[in-house]
């Protein structure tokens, strides 16, 4: 099929995620046919640097021989077999490996296919844990303003991005919120570090009053990704964890975005010595090759589900494709390659290069803030930098910038007027320069063309 025919059928039949489909025909999409390393190649043969790691998943680049080989061999050996009543070697080996690399204590692994379901499972486990631990009144959840935990109804309930979540309000369970740890926009009107991390201490106040009713706190460790790469002040995460522990409230780390090296450590929790009770993983787990997610739990959590058959303490949850052997093969090959190339250990010079480029971009007249951690970055645009006045949303400035990057050979995505950079961990320094150069030029072009 040629490009025109593909675009016709796309308009006719394909409903794209997070997309206003009425506007879709106005800006025909790139149709990606192939990939090489960190580059996407469209049906016309044009090459684009994959500046958001194909939505935050790509680790070693695309079409990596070692992962592809593992997938091909597994397809020929065993395509699928259920984990309900049976086991297979890949699911076992990967569970052991994840348990070994995770923060201490996370010893049990439960598979699913998406970050949303990994979170959903963590929420259900936390809830059921207390039901079966003699504290059935501990039913509530605490999450952060501006949180994103996925798109299923449970994960939407703990989410805190009104634009995405508000319409579903009547379907959601109530959740208590902590003020977003976003210093420039401090909800408490305070200034870091003089504030003494008052946004974390808000958890102490909440749990002192209501801790007996709370099952768990869920948090994206160190960086709230989908709200625009909101980087938490240092010590915030650890303080939340200490307070939750003191009140015997389970700590759920949603490492779907931050896991597997993204923040500079294998898991963001490790940056602050935090050992969660439950941890959700997804995105980078297979290196960006196949959909696989995992929820890790401590022996303590797991123990509450043990009993005689007719006590019915079982975790009654499992998807048809839970722990599919091919996806597990991809994950095993991904993790092996990460070890062999010492990818995470070698990330510091790349993060530093990104930081240098971002420091230049931060000086642009319509860039109000850049935020970054490891290889995650957000560049926030504003109509008036000094007054911190946003652009009217209808101008879609973030969108215009990412579209202006396309002719420069870069694919990225905005979150509102925050331009997000999430290059593959395997990016070279010169590829990072290409990305940063294109983004800087695009921001200048779009913001100087005026609103
Ligand atoms: C992407 C993301 C999810 C959801 O993952 P899906 O695979 O899209 O369902 C959950 N939590 C965080 C922090 C994410 O970034």
CATH class of the largest domain: Alpha Beta
Strand percentage, roughly?
Answer: 15-25%
Task: Give the proportion of residues in helices.
Answer: 25-40%
Largest sheet: 7 strands, mixed
Instruction: Note poorly predicted spans.
Output: none
Distance between the termini: 39 Å
Give the domain tally: 2
Shape: globular
Radius of gyration: 22 Å
Mean pLDDT: 97
Predict the CATH topology of the largest domain.
Aspartate Aminotransferase, domain 2
Features:
Aspartate Aminotransferase, domain 2, Aspartate Aminotransferase, domain 1, 2 domains, 17% strand, four-stranded mixed beta sheet, alpha/beta
Describe it.
The chain has 451 residues and is an alpha/beta fold. It has two domains: 31-59 and 344-449, Alpha-Beta Complex (Aspartate Aminotransferase, domain 1), CATH 3.90.1150.10; 67-341, Aspartate Aminotransferase, domain 2. The chain is 35% helix and 17% strand. It contains 14 helices and 17 strands. The strands form four sheets. It has a seven-stranded mixed sheet with strand order 4-12-11-10-7-5-6, with helices on both faces. Strands 1-2-3-15 form a four-stranded mixed sheet. Helix 4 crosses helix 11 and helix 12 runs parallel beside helix 14. It is globular. 46% of the residues are buried.
């Amino acid at each position: 099929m040629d490009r025109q025919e593909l675009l016709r059928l796309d308009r006719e039949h394909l409903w794209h995620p997070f997309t206003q489909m009425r506007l879709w025909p106005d800006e025909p999409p790139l149709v990606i046919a192939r990939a090489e390393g960190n580059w996407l190649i469209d049906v016309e043969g044009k090459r684009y640097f994959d500046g958001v790691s194909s939505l935050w998943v790509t680790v070693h680049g695309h079409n990596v021989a070692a992962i592809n080989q593992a997938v091909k061999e597994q397809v020929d050996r065993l395509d699928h077999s259920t984990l309900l009543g049976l086991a297979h070697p890949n699911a076992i080996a990967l569970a052991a490996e994840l348990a070994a690399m995770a923060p201490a204590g996370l010893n049990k692994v439960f598979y699913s296919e998406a970050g949303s379901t990994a979170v959903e499972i963590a929420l259900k486990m936390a809830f059921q844990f207390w039901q079966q631990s003699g504290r059935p009144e501990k039913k509530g959840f605490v999450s952060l303003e501006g949180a994103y935990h996925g798109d299923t109804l449970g994960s939407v309930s703990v989410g805190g991005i009104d634009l995405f979540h508000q319409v579903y309000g009547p379907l959601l369970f109530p959740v208590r919120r902590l003020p977003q740890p976003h210093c420039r926009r401090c909800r408490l009107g305070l200034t870091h570090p003089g504030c003494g991390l008052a946004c974390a201490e808000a958890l102490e106040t909440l749990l002192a009053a209501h801790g007996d009713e709370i099952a768990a706190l869920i948090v994206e460790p160190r960086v709230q990704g989908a709200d625009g790469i909101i980087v938490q002040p240092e010590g915030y995460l650890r303080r939340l964890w200490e307070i939750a522990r003191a009140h015997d409230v389970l700590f759920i780390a949603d490492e779907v975005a931050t896991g597997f090296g993204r923040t500079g450590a294998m898991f963001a929790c490790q940056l602050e010595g935090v050992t969660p009770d439950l941890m959700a993983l997804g995105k980078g787990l297979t290196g960006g090759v196949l959909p696989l997610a995992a929820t890790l739990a401590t022996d303590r959590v797991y123990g509450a589900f043990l009993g005689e058959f007719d006590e019915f303490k079982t975790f009654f949850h499992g998807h048809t494709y839970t722990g599919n052997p091919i996806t597990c093969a991809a994950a095993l090959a991904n993790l092996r390659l990460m070890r062999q190339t010492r990818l995470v250990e070698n990330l510091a010079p790349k993060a530093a290069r990104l930081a240098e480029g971002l420091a230049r971009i931060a000086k642009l007249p319509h860039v109000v803030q850049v935020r970054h951690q490891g290889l995650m970055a957000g560049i926030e645009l504003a109509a008036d930098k000094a007054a911190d006045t946003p652009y009217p949303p209808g101008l879609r400035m973030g969108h215009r910038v990412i579209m202006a990057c396309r002719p420069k050979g870069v694919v990225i995505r905005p979150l509102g007027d925050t331009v997000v950079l999430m290059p593959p961990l395997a990016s070279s320094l010169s590829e990072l320069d290409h990305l940063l150069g294109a983004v800087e030029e695009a921001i200048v072009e779009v913001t100087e063309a005026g609103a």
